[in-house]
Automatic annotation (TrEMBL):
This is DNA-(apurinic or apyrimidinic site) lyase. The keyword Transcription regulation does not apply. Transmembrane segments: none annotated. It catalyses: 2'-deoxyribonucleotide-(2'-deoxyribose 5'-phosphate)-2'-deoxyribonucleotide-DNA = a 3'-end 2'-deoxyribonucleotide-(2,3-dehydro-2,3-deoxyribose 5'-phosphate)-DNA + a 5'-end 5'-phospho-2'-deoxyribonucleoside-DNA + H(+). CDD domains: AcNei1_N (cd08970). Belongs to the FPG family. The lineage of its organism: Bacteria, Bacillati, Actinomycetota, Actinomycetes, Micrococcales. Residues 294-328 form the FPG-type domain.
Length: 328
C-alpha cells in the first residue's frame, strides 16, 4: 500500500502541474462518470495530502477525495514540471540525502521515486519508469488510457490517470472537514507541538500494542507496513508493548522519527530508513529496496545490528518484521 510519503508527492505533483489550471475530467473506465461530470471544466485551486488520503479542491467549492488503498496509483504524462523541492541546481530531478545534500536522482528497480507514476507498483508503472530518461517523450498527447482508468484529469499540457483506488469521490467542504477530523496528525501537514502532544496523549492512553497503534490512521496519519516495521526497529521497541507502557519521551521520539523519515521519503520518493549512508552505500540503498531497510522484508536474514534472524509474524492482518533481540 502506498504510504504517506507517496501521497504527499502526488499532492505536490498536482500543486505544481494542475493548481491554477482549468481541468477536464472524465472516467474512461465508466465507474466515475457522474463524479467526473461534477468537476469537469473547473479550475483546480488546491491539492493537499493528509496521511494516505489526498484532496483536490476546485473553484466551485467541491473537492475530489482519493484514497489509493492497496492497489491505487496515479500515472502522469505530458509536460510534467517536477516539484521544486526535489529539483537539483541544474534543473534536473534530484533528491536530498539525510545530511541535506542534493544529489542526482537514483531510480530504484520498481520506479518508486518516479515522476511519471506514483502509487502501488504494477506492470504499467515499471513500463513507465523504464521510459523515464532524458529522452522520455510520449508519442501522442494525451496518451490512450491504459487499463482501468477510474478518472482522468487533463489540462492543455499534463494528464493524470488514476487506477485502482479504494476511494474516489466528490465531497463538499463540510464533508472534507469531517473526513480530516477523523484522521490523526500528519507531521508534514502539521509539525506543531500541539500535533505532537496529541499523538503522545493518544498513544499513552491505549493498552493496544504499539505495532497496531502506529497503523491506526486515527492516531497518526500516513504510517504503513514498511514505516511501522522500520520505526519500531529504530526505536528498539517490541511491537507488542502496550502504548500505555511507553514513556512520554519514547513516544515523542517516535513522532519525531516519523517526521524525519517522512520528510526523507517525500524528498527522495523512497522509504529510506537507514541513516548516515554515503557514496556507494547510499547509491546502492537508493537503487535497491533490500539495501535501505533494517528489517522490512528481511525475514530469516541476520539483523544488521546483532545478527539475530529477523522474525516475520502477523499483526493486524499485516506482515510484521522485527528483531526479537534488538526490540525486547
Amino acid at each position: 500500500m502506498p504510504e504517506g510519503h507517496s501521497v504527499h508527492r502526488i499532492a505536490r505533483q498536482f500543486q505544481r502541474n494542475f493548481v491554477g489550471s482549468r481541468v477536464s475530467l472524465s472516467s474512461p473506465q465508466g465507474r466515475f462518470v457522474a463524479g467526473a461530470a461534477q468537476l469537469d471544466g473547473h479550475v483546480m485551486t488546491d491539492a493537499r495530502a493528509v496521511g494516505k488520503q489526498m484532496f483536490l479542491e476546485f473553484d466551485h467549492d467541491l473537492w475530489l477525495r482519493v484514497h489509493l488503498g492497496l492497489y491505487g496509483a496515479w500515472d502522469f504524462s505530458g509536460e510534467i514540471m517536477m516539484d521544486a523541492t526535489i529539483a537539483s541546481a541544474n534543473g534536473r530531478m534530484g533528491q536530498t540525502n539525510q545530511r541535506g545534500t542534493t544529489v542526482p536522482a537514483i531510480l530504484d528497480s520498481a520506479g518508486e521515486n518516479s515522476l511519471h507514476s506514483i502509487g502501488a507498483p504494477r506492470r504499467t508503472r515499471v513500463r513507465m519508469s523504464e521510459q523515464e530518461k532524458e529522452s522520455y517523450a510520449p508519442e501522442t498527447f494525451p496518451p490512450e488510457p491504459i487499463g482501468q482508468v477510474r478518472v482522468r484529469l487533463l489540462t492543455d499540457t499534463v494528464c493524470a490517470d488514476l487506477r485502482g483506488p479504494t476511494a474516489c469521490e466528490v465531497l463538499e467542504p463540510a464533508q472534507v472537514d469531517a473526513v480530516i477530523a477523523k484522521l490523526g496528525p500528519d507531521p508534514i501537514l502539521d509539525p506543531s507541538i500541539e500535533a505532537e502532544d496529541r499523538f503522545v496523549a493518544t498513544v499513552r492512553k491505549k493498552s493496544t500494542p504499539i505495532g497496531l497503534i502506529l497503523m491506526d490512521q486515527s492516531v497518526v496519519s500516513g504510517i504503513g507496513n514498511v514505516y511501522r516495521a522500520e520505526l519500531l526497529f529504530r526505536a528498539g521497541l517490541n511491537p507488542y508493548a502496550p502504548g500505555k507502557s511507553l514513556t512520554d519521551d519514547t513516544v515523542r521520539a517516535l513522532w519525531n522519527d516519523w517526521a524525519h523519515l517522512l520528510t526523507i521519503g517525500v524528498e527522495t520518493g523512497q522509504m529510506m530508513t537507514m541513516d548516515n549512508l554515503e557514496g556507494d552505500a547510499y547509491s546502492l540503498a537508493m537503487a535497491n529496496r533490500a539495501d535501505r531497510h533494517w528489517v522490512y522484508k528481511r525475514e530469516g536474514l541476520p539483523c544488521r545490528v546483532c545478527g539475530t534472524h529477523i522474525t516475520l509474524e502477523e499483526m493486524g492482518a499485516r506482515k510484521l518484521y522485527w528483531c526479537p533481540s534488538c526490540q525486547r
